[in-house]
Amino acid sequence: MRKLIAGLLVAAPLAAAAAELPIFDAHMHYSHDAWDVLPPKEVIAILKKAGVRRALVSSSGDDGQQRLKSEAPELIVTELRRTAPAATPARGSATTRCRPISRSG
User: Fold this and answer.
1) How many whole angstroms separate alpha carbon 22 and alpha carbon 26?
2) 101 within a domain of the structure (yes/no)
3) Which of 63, 3, 94, 96 shows the shortest CA–CA distance to 11?
């Protein structure tokens, strides 16, 4: 019984501290196929209801993330994204064609 009480005394403050930590969504997509299904105002409402304090957003093109940012600039962090050319059987995947960046001297 003493071990149980000691465990609860240790765990309770840790649980309370964890409940107070802000939520940061570090990987969110909002591209053209989602705009009609879930307009920006609804997305922001869902994020706020879930307790998300900041969200890193990317979209195919820049429009999706800019739509969200205009609704809640304090919440949305836009991500710079380079769109690779579409892969084809002749070219292989975009990943296999990337070359590492190197500096000389």
Assistant:
1) 12
2) no
3) 3
- What pTM did the predictor assign? 0.59
pLDDT for 7-25, tens place per residue?
A: 555 666 666 666 678 888 8
The answer to whether 57 and 76 have CB atoms below 8 angstroms apart is yes
If we measure between CA atoms, which residue out of 60, 52, 65, 61 comes closest to residue 26?
52
**37 within some domain:** yes
- Other C-beta atoms closer than 10 Å to the C-beta of 18 total 8
Q: Is residue 41 part of a domain?
A: yes
- The per-residue pLDDT for range 49-65, each reduced to its tens digit, is 999 999 999 888 888 99
90 vs 65: CA distance, rounded Å:
32
Report the number of distinct structural domains present in the chain.
1
Q: Is residue 44 part of a domain?
A: yes
What span, in angstroms and rounded, lies between the C-alpha atoms of 41 and 31?
Answer: 15
CB distance 76 to 68 below 8 Å: yes
